[in-house]
């Protein structure tokens, strides 16, 4: 380990109780994520990935176990979350959406202006800043979510399949934009994806989860140095081997969950 630990999860279990039964969504998960690390969480549908992220975002509480996000200043928000969809506020303009978290914190107006403009520019939305979400495309809405999350400057960033609803072209562009902003900010990111390509492109480490109830069953350090492009990911033999290993893992877990 080269950097200090930013997120520490210890034996975390989450059980949802219903009227006459219960569902264990996450089981005994322990995970340490370093400061500035980009970690992708990959696992079959329903294995508890979103639940784990929601716990870290303090939208759910664990049934047992614990987690800690190491705060370096106490002045910044602990976490920002980017969802697959519905991340924008329809009655605010693009710019107001990006500035939303900063305005909520009553920060100085000139700081908000500077920070908002910087990230609007980064995600290519400067010329659309006065439009409302209904006037822009799905890809542009996701750009708002990403710009807002980075503008907030949280201690950690939690991303729940943020590109899953986009077409391939938009996905590639946003992945590259995300990598460019991340390489500048070196934010600690926990990112959920179903796409193995995406995990190999974006992350330092891929954490594989078992079928429901979700446990961590393997971790893969992505072998290719940055900066990476999707072309390299697809052409590189080491990446191809990792792709097949993860693919086989997912196949087995999906079959287990069905049997
Ligand atoms: N609020 C809730 N109440 C009851 N059960 C829940 C709740 N949230 C999630 N679950 C259950 O917990 C399990 C894990 O769900 P979760 O959404 O975390 O999985 P996931 O890995 O993110 O799935 P996907 O990849 O399909 O989004 C599922 O069986 C789900 O039905």
From TrEMBL:
Residues 7-236 form the ABC transporter domain. PROSITE patterns: ABC_TRANSPORTER_1 (PS00211), ABC_TRANSPORTER_2 (PS50893). Signal peptide: none annotated. Keywords: ATP-binding, Nucleotide-binding, Translocase, Transport. One of its GO terms (molecular function) is ATP binding. SUPFAM superfamilies: P-loop containing nucleoside triphosphate hydrolases (SSF52540). SMART domains: AAA (SM00382). PANTHER family: ALIPHATIC SULFONATES IMPORT ATP-BINDING PROTEIN SSUB, TAURINE IMPORT ATP-BINDING PROTEIN-RELATED. This is ABC transporter ATP-binding protein. It comes from Psychrobacillus mangrovi.
């Amino acid at each position: 380990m080269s950097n200090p630990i930013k997120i520490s999860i210890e034996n975390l279990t989450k059980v949802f109780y219903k009227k006459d039964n219960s569902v264990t969504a996450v089981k005994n998960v322990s995970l340490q994520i370093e400061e500035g690390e980009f970690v992708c969480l990959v696992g079959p549908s329903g294995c508890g990935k979103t639940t784990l992220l929601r716990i870290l975002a303090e939208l759910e509480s664990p049934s047992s176990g614990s987690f800690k996000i190491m705060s370096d200043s106490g002045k910044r928000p602990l976490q920002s979350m980017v969802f697959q969809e519905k991340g924008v506020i329809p009655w605010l303009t693009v710019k107001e959406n990006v500035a939303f978290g900063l305005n909520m914190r009553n920060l100085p107006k000139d700081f908000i202006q500077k920070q908002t403009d910087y990230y609007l520019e980064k995600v290519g939305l400067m010329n659309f800043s006065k439009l409302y979400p209904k006037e822009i495309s799905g890809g542009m809405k996701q750009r708002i979510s990403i710009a807002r999350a980075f503008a907030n400057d949280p201690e950690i960033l939690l991303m729940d399949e943020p590109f899953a609803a986009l077409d391939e072209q938009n996905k590639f562009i946003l992945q590259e934009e995300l990598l460019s902003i991340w390489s500048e900010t070196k934010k600690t990111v926990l990112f959920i994806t179903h796409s193995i390509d995406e995990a190999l492109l974006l992350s330092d480490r891929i954490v594989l989860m078992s079928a429901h109830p979700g446990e961590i069953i393997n971790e893969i350090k992505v072998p290719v140095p940055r900066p990476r492009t999707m072309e390299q990911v697809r052409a590189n033999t080491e990446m191809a081997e990792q792709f097949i290993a993860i693919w086989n893992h997912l196949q087995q877990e999906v079959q287990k969950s069905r049997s």
